[in-house]
Write a structure and sequence with these properties.
- The complex is a heterodimer of chains A (199) and B (464).
- Chain A has six helices and eleven strands.
- The longest helix of chain A has 11 residues.
- Chain A is globular, with a radius of gyration of 20 Å.
- Chain A is 23% helix and 24% strand.
- Chain A is α/β, with parallel strands linked by helices and 199 residues long.
- In chain A, β4 and β5 form a beta hairpin.
- Chain B contains 22 helices and ten strands.
- In chain B, the strands form two sheets. A six-stranded parallel sheet of chain B has the order 1-10-7-4-2-3, with helices on both faces. Chain B has a four-stranded mixed sheet with strand order 8-5-6-9.
- Classes of the chains: A alpha/beta (199), B alpha/beta (464).
Amino acid sequence: MSSRDAILAAIRKHPLEQTPLPTLNQDWIQYPDRVAQFTTVIETVGGRCIPVSSEGEINSHLKELPQFASAIVRCSTVDGIGEPTLDAGSVAKPHDLLAVDFAVLRGEFCVAENGAVWITDEPTPHRALYFITQHLALVVPRSQIVSNLHEAYQRLAFEKPRFGAFLSGPSKTADIEQSLVIGAQGPRSHVVFLLDDGA
Amino acid sequence: MDHPTAAAKFVANDTRAHWHDKALWFVREKRDRMAHGLPEWEILRETAAAIKSHTITHLADLLEQFEENATKLGATVHWARDGAEHNEIVHGLLRDHGVKKVVKSKSMLTEECHLNPFLERHGMEITDTDLGEWLVQLRQEAPSHIVLPAIHISKEEVGELFHDVLGTEAGNSDPQYLAEAARHALRQRFVEADAGLTGVNFAIAETGGIVVCTNEGNADLGTSLPKLHIASMGIEKIIPQAAHLGVFLRLLARSATGQPITTYSSHFHGPRPGGELHIVLVDNGRSDLIGSDEFRRSLSCIRCGACMNTCPVYRRSGGHSYGTTVPGPIGSILAPAQDAKAHHSLPFACSLCGSCTDVCPVKIDLHHQLLTWRKLIAVRGLVPLSKRLSMRLATAVFKRPWLFNLGGSIARWVTPKLPRFLIYNPLNAWGRQRELPEFPKESFRQAWEKRRSSSGGDGKDTSS
């Protein structure tokens, strides 16, 4: 017998009374001001949220960030933003992105309750960029924000091969005596630009 | 080594033991603030428990569904009956791909299977990339906590370790400085790696995807650079639908570290373009637990570590005192299921306070299961002789009220007259760190009788 069949048989040899699935239709938390909630939470996890009214405004905010001003290698998948010096799509291997100092990438939507932004590998040929860059900025349309994670999963379908993740703040560790250190192995800073899309 | 013996080593360092206790309680308090911040917290726990109950009672079907959907997405699913078969599968894949260097993110399952030493024996270089796991790997230790693997190590020890391994300044134990040195070294390992190994927090039957949660981003770096990704999971990690992640991801990080969500919650559906994704499903005793009415619910565990952070025994005895991959309350249930003889002392490393059951996000009845284990261990004759004899003596005394009263009278009369060395003798384990209270002149029963006769009634205090 294959291990597969042996394991399945070992499970099925215990006939159990099958219990039903619970409803997910509950009064989950709603935030009257989702942007305010998102902004508060993302700050508690070491990130920042900056509401902007135009793409041009993003560029001026970026210039004021010391980590952007000092960045030598910059990538961007958002047209006209972030003064890219390197086209991430042009490198052969994701390993060649190790030197990226600052990346500006698109996020799909925000979750107010936990400060997370949903990202996928669709806009970039190398998903490593989200994690390998020294500093990360995400651009998300302001209208795309849900209150809680249940609403988030109602938006998501996983029908084809695809990578997606919730990112909530910069990479961090507290593994040395519980002291919080920002910038464990991934990005050292994390800023979300909420772009007013008039909706 | 049994738990009390191993714990004695930990508490010998008084400063460390107190720091450990306080640090974990601080995490427990953060968890409380998060839980209290959500009005639906209890609904979430009940929903999670019900989903897990459904999962365990439909497990074979869900595993088949997962395999079918994961395969459709281009992943390869492997099945391992035990740790040895798991290690063979992983090694076979690495060997066939000519892999020399491996980066691995946190996976308690690979700890359970002792994968690292197995791969090292086959000449591979494996790096645990979670900072805490890397620290214990460099010290050739096991993690002492499932979420905070290096909670037993001081920053000074990390400073010395990194001075030896990474050449950091001697005597510098600043966490920021040390973490920066680790960052530099580990990022290099990611770039050099030929394969990335990860654990799995949740596997979705309906979609065939897996979810991995980290705060450092190490699972993502380890799987987005090398082309080969191998994910190892216990068969109980399955959940039916993606929508259920809404419940579990809301509970996991809040319960674990008091964060609203882990920094990175990554959903892998199939391999990345040009890459390979292999998922190894491991039984290793889990299917036996399904057959146990008493312990089946322990399979609902999502490995958040909340039961450890709150446990008064764990906090004061340290994770290594359990001698198991998963320590603390949940570990004290899982380990005897694997080998009751070797781990007979663990269900007794518990005050039955029930705090673990109160904080468990999937509502496992932890302290009830620990009590059940005690009974089973007694029935199987695995309780040590000293405990068996003293229990037999206690039974004899409690069965005979006259003997109990006589013993009490003698003890009250004799004990205060005895010299210290006789009372605090080596056999009196209780007296090692404690002073006996002053002995009363009369027993509770005598005081009660006196009070009743003087108030002329049923002994109720009517003076207020």
